[in-house]
């Protein structure tokens, strides 16, 4: 896995595909690059398989938008609230 500048983007490679996931479901995607569902509401992904045509300009724009999103978030702050049990004991709920 490779992550640039925090949470955005994260790249993962497997035998038959490569996936770029982005934290920030609000990232604009005017060229419709996002094509993979991650089952949540905060991350979206692009799945690449051999032979895919890649819109390089649109991908660069999306990566830059993800990095910009990272740079505008306050450092050290999590967007997710901890559960009361984990706060008291350190044990996940």
What attributes does this structure have?
globular; 93 residues; alpha+beta; 22% strand; disordered N terminus; four-stranded antiparallel β-sheet
Structural category: alpha+beta
Got a strand count?
4
Which parts are unreliable, with pLDDT below 50 for 5 consecutive residues or more?
A: 1-5
User: What summary fits the major beta sheet?
Assistant: 4 strands, antiparallel
Rg from alpha-carbon coordinates: 15 Å
DSSP summary: helix tally: 2
Biggest sheet: strand arrangement: 1-2-3-4
Give a verbal description of the structure:
Residues 1-5 have low confidence and may be disordered. This protein has one domain (2-74). Helix content is 25%, strand content 22%. The protein has a four-stranded antiparallel sheet, with no helix packed on it. It is built from two helices and four strands; from the N terminus they run ββββαα. By secondary structure, it is of the alpha+beta class. It starts with a strand and ends with a helix.
Short note summarizing the structure:
This protein is of the alpha+beta class and 93 residues long. It contains two helices and four strands, in the order ββββαα. The protein has helices at 56-72, 84-89, and strands spanning 2-3, 10-13, 17-23, 43-49.
Layout of secondary structure:
Layout: E1 2-3, E2 10-13, E3 17-23, E4 43-49, H1 56-72, H2 84-89
């Amino acid at each position: 896995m490779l992550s640039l500048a925090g949470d955005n983007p994260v790249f993962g490679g497997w035998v038959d595909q490569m996936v770029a996931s982005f934290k920030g479901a609000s990232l604009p995607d005017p060229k419709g690059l996002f094509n993979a569902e991650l089952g949540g509401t905060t991350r979206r992904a692009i799945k690449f398989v051999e032979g895919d045509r890649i819109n390089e300009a649109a991908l660069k724009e999306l990566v830059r938008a993800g990095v910009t999103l990272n740079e505008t978030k306050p450092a050290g702050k999590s967007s997710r609230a901890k559960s009361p049990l984990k706060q008291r004991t350190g044990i996940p709920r």
